[in-house]
């Protein structure tokens, strides 16, 4: 019995201790602990198009917007609503024209978001929309979408200022002077004759789009766009003028937005 007990103790001492980890397993654990996680794939631009005998519809937005989940969700809702309304209106118009014995022209709608510039804090998107819904001619409009990454929401251009009234004080006269020149170029005659389209749309009636033309992460220009019928008749199309960001404008901004602009 003593022999067998001694043999058991010898064999137990030769095996690995319960608290020890085999060398190869320790190495594996060390590698697993330091191995970096795979990087998330970069966002890609989005584009979808539908074309049939009833409608033509397309919707697109850039990679910068695709990287923001809140915008992706918002755009999905826009697409669903726009397309369903387009189909319903086209079906109604087609049924009416069949009763009247007149030709039906497919309805169309297009929405395209494009990046006009971005900073660490803000993403500036230009939104061009257009289409045809059975009238004498189509429609077109340009809007702006300014996204605050930190607040994770859309903000208006006027929200950038410490006092909202500074927007009008600093930009209204510059906008009117530039619009007047653009009107004269299109019309071939002096503007301001008191006609229907000789007044100056307010800054609330146009789209103000911050632009980073040299892609240095700061907005140095403002693109002001008046869609058709806002500053002129349909045949004149839209009016687009560029206004340089001034030092006075930067000074009038809220402190958190000043680093996004340069004069």
Summarize the structure.
Residues 18-45 are annotated as: Disordered. The chain has 263 residues and is of the alpha+beta class.
How is this structure best described in words?
With 263 residues, the chain is of the alpha+beta class. It folds into 2 domains: 43-155, Fervidobacterium nodosum Rt17-B1 like (Heat Shock Protein 90, 2-Layer Sandwich); 157-263, Heat-shock cognate protein, ATPase (Actin, Chain A, domain 4), CATH 3.90.640.20. Helix content is 34%, strand content 25%. The chain has helices at residues 2-14, 23-34, 63-66, 69-100, 165-187, 247-252; strands at residues 46-51, 55-61, 107-118, 122-132, 139-148, 153-155, 207-211, 221-226, 239-244. A 6-stranded mixed sheet has the order 1-2-3-4-5-6. Strand 3 (107-118) and strand 4 (122-132) form a beta hairpin. The radius of gyration is 31 Å and the shape is flat. Residues 1-28 have low confidence and may be disordered. It comes from Sphingomonas alba. This is DUF4163 domain-containing protein. Residues 18-45 are annotated as: Disordered. Residues 49-138 form the Deacetylase PdaC domain. InterPro entries: PdaC.
How would you classify the helix and strand content by structural class?
alpha+beta
Number of domains: 2
CATH architecture of the largest domain: 2-Layer Sandwich
Beta strand count: 9
Provide keyphrases for this structure.
263 residues; alpha+beta; Heat Shock Protein 90; Actin, Chain A, domain 4; 2 domains; six-stranded mixed β-sheet; three-stranded antiparallel β-sheet; 9 strands; disordered N terminus; PdaC; DUF4163 domain-containing protein
